[in-house]
Design brief:
Layout lengths: L5 E6 L2 E3 L2 E3 L2 E2 L4 H7 L15 E5 L8 E2 L6 E3 L1 H9 L4 E10 L11 E5 L2 E2 L8 E7 L2 E8 L4 H6 L3 E4 L2 E8 H9 L5 E4 L11
Parallel strand pairs: 5-8, 10-13
Antiparallel strand pairs: 1-14, 1-15, 2-3, 4-5, 6-7, 7-9, 8-9, 11-12, 13-14
């Protein structure tokens, strides 16, 4: 099997009129901070998901995977439909995208997408890690993943890595489908990953 059967999957920033195109949170509260501690663990949330509102330029292109500075993935109906058709386990939560000038809701049904696929995919003996001490805390980096043979044969479209739940990986077949369908705002990167995993 090819080394690059899987890619790290994340949102990608876009430029528009010389600036980074992003959705800005309007009411990011303490409740959202509490939810962050539970977000990556694939279990029902212990507290209700609050209403989310983001501002966005009315005349800017509507990106399928909206860049924003929060934990939450905001997906378009097109992107959600593709993932649903593949049977990927997830939860959806409402979100309102508000025109930054008019204050009116932009009429496209974006949703917060919570990926529930979390699997023990790493061959930990063969994978390569790096450890750094930061203010007395050991931070673990996944430098080079080697996947279990059982997982590789499944060709799972999209999952988070158990033990590194902040990292989602996408199979090359789904990557090709998203590119073919012109899904915008998605980043497909190879390892090493320079993002630390920190247990809350």
């Amino acid at each position: 099997m090819e080394k690059n059967d899987y890619f790290r999957f994340s949102r990608k920033s876009s430029s528009w009129n010389g600036d980074t195109l992003r959705a800005e949170p309007l009411d990011y509260s303490d409740t959202h901070s509490k939810i962050q501690r539970e977000w990556w663990y694939g279990k029902p949330l212990s507290i209700p998901f609050p209403e989310l509102r983001f501002s966005y330029p009315e005349d800017a292109p509507l990106i399928d995977n909206l860049w924003n500075a929060t934990l939450f993935e905001i997906y378009s109906p097109r992107l959600i439909s593709i993932l649903q058709n593949l049977g990927i386990a997830h939860e959806l939560y409402p979100v309102h995208i508000i025109g930054e000038k008019t204050g009116r809701i932009i009429p496209i049904e974006y949703r917060v997408f919570r990926l529930l696929e979390i699997h023990d995919v790493l061959d930990k003996k063969a994978s390569r890690f790096r450890y750094e001490n930061h203010r007395g805390q050991t931070i673990e980096y996944l430098e080079e993943p080697v996947y279990k043979e059982k997982f590789r044969k499944l060709k799972m479209p999209l999952t988070r890595i158990k033990g590194f739940e902040n990292i989602a990986i996408v199979h090359k077949d789904l990557k090709a489908l998203l590119e073919k369908e012109g899904i915008s705002g998605c980043s497909f990167s190879t390892f090493p990953v320079r993002f630390p995993y920190q247990q809350n």
